[in-house]
Amino acid sequence: MTPTRAVRPVKGGRRRSRRRADMPLLGGVRPPIALLCVLVLALAGLTAQVLGPAGEQAVPQAVLSSQRHFAEDGAIALRASIDERVTDLNRTAAALNAGPPVKPERVLSDLGKTYQKWTGTTVLDLESGKVLAARGETIPLGWLDKDVLTGDTALKPRMVRLETGDVRLMTMAVLDFEDRPQQLLVASNSLSVPAINLGQFRSMAVVATGGEILATAGFEQSEALNSDQERKELGFLQKQMSGLSAKAARETEQDPVSAREPGSRGYPGVSGTLVGGSYNGRVATAGYASLSSADPEEKKSVGAGLGLTVVALLPVVQQEGAAADRELYGLLAAGALVVLGLLAAAVLWVTVQRPLLRLFLESRRLARGDLTRPVDVPRWGEAARIGSALERLRAQLGGPADDPGGRQRVKGRFGVRGPLALTAVLLLLWCVPVGLLLNRTDDSVSIPASMVADQRDRTDLVADRVRRALNEAQADLVSTSRLIAPDDADAARALLEETLREHTRYEALYLLDEDGEVVARAGEEPRAGFADADELPLVRVAGKGEKKPVVQAGAPLPDHKGMTLVGEVRVEFLNSLLKRPGLGEVRVVDSKTQTIAASDGFLAFEDLPRDALTDLVQAGSVHVGAGPVENGLLIREGRGTTVAAAAPFSGGGVAADIGWTVVSWQNAKDFQITPYEREDRSVLAGLLGLALIVVCLGWLYLVVARPMRALAAGAEKLADGDLKSVLYPRYQDEVGAVVRSLELLRQQLQARKQTQARRLAEPEAGVRGR
């Protein structure tokens, strides 16, 4: 019989294995259970924090984000306005230089008729400095010097302060006619707030580097107030605008990447939000945005290089503090998770970890040769099957048969998978209610009135932007039409091709005669005809039944009756004007509410997706007072709430009367409003709980449950007499240690069998020899 090793008894009659140091530290059954406990406690702490009122602001984050988006829209409008004015002046000068000499008075007259965008224009002789012609406000010339006209910064736009204290942007271009001295064309622009609808109570400012306010808008209506209370509030707002503008100017001096706030992706410049003081229950909130090029890689934007910042200020009603029981909800949810998590960990410890560690110790004891006492067989599952096999192996090695019942086979259907499933159910009892039932919202959630107003005002701003773009497209055609010589088709084609290269808004330019025949063209083939340009409107849409609408702008040729220059505006260009963060889905529809352009994909001339949106567009098109007005609406359907707005084209230009409307809508759940944020946090907590279940229990299944099933099958085969199959440990953990012990037992049984066979063969040989 194989000698046994002595085992030192310890207090309580239990034995301590000297091989306990061989147990793995990072593998086996204990790390996933420990990780489960750690993650449960971490998730409980996170739940107590995010489901309670901690960290809630006096102003909803949705309102602050809306102010930032409003400031970004204002900055885009101001930059586009500045760049368009500079581009128009340079293009006009280039066109004049390519033609015959024109008198200075005629230059300013044609410029004023084509573009009504400059506060003053002047033509002066560069050699003598004499003013040859002037229109509009008087432009001071004291700032003109050698540095302005020569060097690397020659003819760059300059900001100049007038004697009245107002600041003007001076734009210059050289007129170089043949056989004439060079002339300088100077145009002044006011750096005023973009002509956009600010809505009620909002004010906006254009701020220079250093925090100097160059222009403001929105205070004019307030200045007409008479009561002392209203004047005090006006003084408070003006003081807040001054202080917040200085802060915004400092913030916009940072690099756009380092200054980026979470959620502000989509705007290439520096933008953000500020919160000022409070007065009479209202908090001053501000959004700011620096003027930035539409393309960060493009450095040609004049407006982006002026160092200007747009600040939008809106006083909002201070949000009431959260209910006191909100913190209790978070603590109760966290406490329930701790209880269920610890209960799940206890189940795993009792049913998985403890039996496996017992098998580890018992297999070690048998491998060392201690066969004196029976194996402590677990009660069920793979552990019971392995323990029963160990007891049978102990008996086969010569141990006393003190526990006949232990030799019987144990069958288990679920095994370790049962405790894992029970643990998953315990944790799901917390994850499912928290993720699907806690903090659920419906259509009764209160949406701040400022969000509806901002949706309406920003939609009106987009409508104004699209209208101005169409007006600009038609004005470009008017400017080009003055330079076309229809009798020379080659020259006309060359001019159209050059114009097409300069203006990316067009996909085709062509000149039509009085019979509608194409005289010259550039770009794509004309996709639609164009009726007499004398019939309004000069901006129209065609192509119904095709894949894309055909948006056309036309300009009759002066002194050539019946001839029209037509430009087909790319629908993609209009789509790009509609894409604004925080505005949802935006579409341009015609008078029949059929889609012409959209921020997302669309079908040409398709109807709006909801009847409520159609009604909103039709209501906004009704003339009230001077004309149609923009409208905002809350649409509550089922459990959802939608914020929608419609803004008909209004204002000036040829595109004002074409009957188009910009309509936008978005799900209120996209707003960062406290009830929706709580619902999102609850869903996130439930998802994190599910991730916890998958990670920890999946780990246990891979490293414990599946190897134990294979180990139980191998142990039973060995106990049934299969001594040829070698047992290889795959993991350096408890299961692997049991496998190594079984392999030692297999080798001992094999050696014992060989020894018995030799003993039986020796007497037989002795008898034959006699």
From TrEMBL:
Q: Does the keyword Nucleotidyltransferase apply?
A: no
The answer to whether UniProt assigns keyword Transmembrane helix to this entry is yes
Give the matching InterPro entries: HAMP_dom
Alphabetically ordered keywords of this record: Membrane, Transmembrane, Transmembrane helix
Q: For the region Disordered, give the residue spans.
A: 1-23, 245-272
Give TM regions.
328-352, 419-438, 683-704
Domain spans labelled HAMP: 350-402, 702-754
Pfam families (UniProt xref):
HAMP (PF00672)
- Protein known as: HAMP domain-containing protein
Which organism does this record belong to?
Streptomyces coeruleofuscus
